[in-house]
């Protein structure tokens, strides 16, 4: 999984499958199918971490899942970012910029909702710890996150 990292990506936030991530307290900003298709086809599914920024806002820690997309009968992937920050409002339609810096674990099935939620909480804690290490922290300051001022960035 590390071969493709760090991986930089920018794209519009679209509506997901309404699986109720937000109700679990872990909303995930979904990338469009077009952006997902631009990922290396051999990047493993699983849970990753890195840095994320909405529009030209602040850069925050994030956890990301690359999974099989139920909407396409699990033949296509989905990429969903949970930003470790509390936002005042939703940001559908905005441009999300991310850099994926590390891998946590493969996709798993859970016996209960509680087990799923605690696994995600552990992923978040692991991401927070890893991202404080110099090799990951340095990417927070990457020029990728500094969009040219006054320039409208669309569809990439
Ligand atoms: P959907 O199925 O449409 O993706 P979710 O329940 O996963 O719905 O919620 C995702 C949406 O929540 C994002 O598109 C974004 O607009 C909003 N949101 C608010 N806070 C966050 C956050 N911390 N991380 C990711 N998305 C967030
Ligand atoms: Mg989502």
TrEMBL record:
<keyword id="KW-0479">Metal-binding</keyword>
<dbReference type="Pfam" id="PF01687">
    <property type="entry name" value="Flavokinase"/>
</dbReference>
<keyword id="KW-0808">Transferase</keyword>
<keyword id="KW-0067">ATP-binding</keyword>
<comment type="function">
    <text>Catalyzes the phosphorylation of riboflavin (vitamin B2) to form flavin-mononucleotide (FMN), hence rate-limiting enzyme in the synthesis of FAD. Essential for TNF-induced reactive oxygen species (ROS) production. Through its interaction with both TNFRSF1A and CYBA, physically and functionally couples TNFRSF1A to NADPH oxidase. TNF-activation of RFK may enhance the incorporation of FAD in NADPH oxidase, a critical step for the assembly and activation of NADPH oxidase.</text>
</comment>
<keyword id="KW-0285">Flavoprotein</keyword>
<protein>
    <recommendedName>
        <fullName>Riboflavin kinase</fullName>
        <ecNumber>2.7.1.26</ecNumber>
    </recommendedName>
</protein>
<dbReference type="InterPro" id="IPR023465">
    <property type="entry name" value="Riboflavin_kinase_dom_sf"/>
</dbReference>
<dbReference type="GO" id="GO:0046872">
    <property type="term" value="F:metal ion binding"/>
</dbReference>
<dbReference type="InterPro" id="IPR023468">
    <property type="entry name" value="Riboflavin_kinase"/>
</dbReference>
<dbReference type="InterPro" id="IPR015865">
    <property type="entry name" value="Riboflavin_kinase_bac/euk"/>
</dbReference>
<dbReference type="GO" id="GO:0009231">
    <property type="term" value="P:riboflavin biosynthetic process"/>
</dbReference>
<dbReference type="GO" id="GO:0005739">
    <property type="term" value="C:mitochondrion"/>
</dbReference>
<dbReference type="GO" id="GO:0005524">
    <property type="term" value="F:ATP binding"/>
</dbReference>
<keyword id="KW-0418">Kinase</keyword>
<comment type="pathway">
    <text>Cofactor biosynthesis; FMN biosynthesis; FMN from riboflavin (ATP route): step 1/1.</text>
</comment>
<dbReference type="GO" id="GO:0009398">
    <property type="term" value="P:FMN biosynthetic process"/>
</dbReference>
<feature type="domain" description="Riboflavin kinase">
    <location>
        <begin position="2"/>
        <end position="132"/>
    </location>
</feature>
<dbReference type="GO" id="GO:0008531">
    <property type="term" value="F:riboflavin kinase activity"/>
</dbReference>
<keyword id="KW-0288">FMN</keyword>
<keyword id="KW-0547">Nucleotide-binding</keyword>
<keyword id="KW-0862">Zinc</keyword>
